[in-house]
């Protein structure tokens, strides 16, 4: 066996483990090749399905110098095999009857012989036997019945059900009699030489494995595979967008007006903390004194120590005085901006966690008619397409216009005028919060 796979580091999403390995190498890694060879060597003898594999990883540093960094490892694989058991069954093991009608589907019958002498040596299981149901021993009610079953369980019998005899749960005729202390002393079959393990709980996977008509719901498995691919390769989220939805109209309370939004990522993309950023707020001014104070309260900092959103709030316009506030927001935070007006109106932005790909966004205006200019709020998402610094990893790889997942909220006098950006019907079903 020989396998080769070459990957382009530029297409690796931010959660890919190789990014953490190569981030401290000052030169640019232009390609990574993986080579796997199965070793067939008389010095490494095998006795089953185990395998020894040689793994080489070669990284090409800088296309001009074409320098390679390589590492080699040897791996031994010892799979757990079905042949641990001599026999694996879905139904009952019947040592007592030819009638299947009252037993579980796919039961197995071992025939009774007229006598022990006629039965001969029979079948001996030298490895464990497993059944998802029960064992039925030959009946002993009729002392004149000489029929005999020649099955021998030489190793453990593992049952998810019970042991039955004479139509009821098995029990010896006496407690502790010298002739009835061990299963090997049974008079109607050869016995259980290594005893019984009672699992008591059937293996549900086995029910599907043995049922040819079973329909298995693999939707969760497919979702897990997709979420893993999303974390590893930028291709899967190349056209992910930041969706903003307003589930209800603005709430007016006195001189306050509050808008509630849900902000989420489509394509099963997820928010990812920008670990090189702090939860902080900065203000930029251009011949403007529109803002007097900004503050950012990060709640639950131990649970959410890094930001997942970047909000850019612009007061004024590009043709005159303006202030721009840039805030790195965690899933639980509160940003308060005070404007320089006689009534000191406030713009308050709050976030709260909903799911790994959704966050609640509350925008509140106090005395909205006093705002000198309609603010424009642009929301950027840190996701699997951004690195620890919040930089866009997709830029230029999937078209010239591919930018960070973003959306813009435009307000006029405290009233929502429009939500620009992607369509609000995008696929953004919530994903469970990880961890």
Write the layout of secondary structure elements.
Elements: E1 2-7, H1 17-22, E2 29-38, E3 51-61, E4 67-77, E5 87-89, E6 93-94, E7 108-109, H2 116-119, E8 124-125, E9 129-131, E10 135-136, E11 149-153, E12 157-159, E13 163-165, E14 168-169, E15 189-192, E16 196-198, H3 204-210, H4 219-232, E17 242-245, E18 251-253, E19 256-265, E20 281-286, E21 291-298, E22 309-316, E23 322-329, E24 333-339, E25 346-355, E26 358-366, E27 376-381, E28 406-412, E29 415-420
Number of helices: 4
The average pLDDT value, as a whole number, equals 80
Biggest beta sheet attributes: 7 strands, antiparallel
Gyration radius (Cα, Å) is: 35 Å
Helix content: under 10%
Give me the count of strands: 29
Low-pLDDT regions: 412-426
Q: Report the portion of residues in β strands.
A: 35-45%
Structural classification: mainly beta
Distance between the termini: 38 Å
The best one-word shape is: elongated
Main attributes of the structure:
435 residues; mainly beta; 7-stranded antiparallel β-sheet; 6-stranded antiparallel β-sheet; 4 helices; 7% helix; 38% strand; elongated
How would you sum up this structure in a few lines?
About 5% of the residues lie in helices and about 40% in strands. By secondary structure, the protein is mainly beta.
Q: How would you characterize the overall build of this protein?
A:
- This protein is mainly beta.
- The chain is 7% helix and 38% strand.
- It contains 4 helices and 29 strands.
- The strands form 6 sheets. Strands 17, 18, 19, 21, 24, 25 and 26 form a 7-stranded antiparallel β-sheet that branches. The protein has a 6-stranded antiparallel β-sheet with strand order 20-23-22-27-28-29, with no helix packed on it.
- A hairpin with a 2-residue loop joins strand 28 and strand 29 (415-420).
């Amino acid at each position: 066996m020989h396998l080769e796979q070459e990957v382009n580091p530029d297409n690796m999403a931010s959660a890919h483990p190789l990014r953490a390995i190569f981030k401290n190498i000052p030169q640019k890694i232009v390609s990574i090749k993986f080579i796997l060879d199965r070793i067939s060597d008389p010095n490494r003898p095998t006795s089953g399905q185990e395998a020894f594999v040689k793994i080489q990883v070669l990284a090409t540093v800088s296309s001009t110098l074409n320098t390679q960094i390589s590492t080699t490892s040897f791996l031994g694989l010892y799979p757990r095999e079905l042949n641990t058991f001599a026999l694996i069954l879905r139904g009952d093991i019947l040592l007592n009857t030819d009638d299947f009608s009252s037993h579980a589907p796919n039961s197995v019958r071992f025939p009774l012989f007229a006598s022990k002498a006629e039965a001969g040596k029979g079948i001996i299981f030298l490895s464990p036997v497993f059944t998802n149901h029960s064992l039925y021993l030959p009946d002993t009610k009729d002392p004149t019945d000489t029929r005999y079953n020649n099955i021998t369980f030489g190793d453990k019998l593992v049952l998810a059900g019970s042991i039955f005899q004479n139509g009821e749960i098995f029990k010896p005729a006496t407690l502790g009699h010298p002739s009835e202390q061990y299963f090997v002393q049974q008079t109607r079959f050869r016995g259980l030489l290594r005893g019984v393990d009672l699992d008591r709980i059937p293996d549900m996977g086995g029910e599907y494995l043995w049922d040819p008509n079973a329909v298995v719901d693999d939707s969760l498995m497919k979702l897990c595979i997709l979420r893993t691919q999303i974390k590893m390769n930028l291709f899967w989220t190349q056209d992910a967008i930041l969706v903003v939805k307003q589930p209800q109209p603005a709430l007016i309370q006195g001189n306050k007006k509050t808008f509630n939004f849900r902000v989420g990522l489509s394509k099963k993309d997820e928010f990812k903390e920008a670990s090189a950023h702090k939860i902080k707020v900065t203000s930029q001014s251009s011949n403007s004194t529109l803002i007097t104070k900004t503050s950012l309260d990060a709640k639950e900092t131990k649970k959410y120590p890094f930001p997942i959103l970047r909000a850019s709030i612009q007061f004024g316009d590009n043709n005159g005085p303006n202030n721009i506030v840039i805030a790195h927001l965690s899933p639980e935070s509160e940003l308060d901006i005070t404007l320089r007006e006689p009534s000191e109106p406030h713009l308050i932005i709050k976030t709260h966690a909903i799911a790994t790909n959704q966050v609640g966004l509350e925008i509140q205006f106090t005395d909205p008619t006093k705002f000198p200019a309609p603010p424009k709020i642009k929301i950027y998402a840190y996701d699997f397409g951004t690195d620890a610094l919040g930089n866009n990893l997709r830029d230029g790889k999937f078209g010239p216009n591919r930018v960070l997942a973003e959306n813009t909220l435009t307000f006029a006098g405290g009233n929502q005028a429009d939500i620009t950006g992607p369509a609000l019907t995008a696929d953004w079903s919530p994903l469970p919060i990880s961890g």
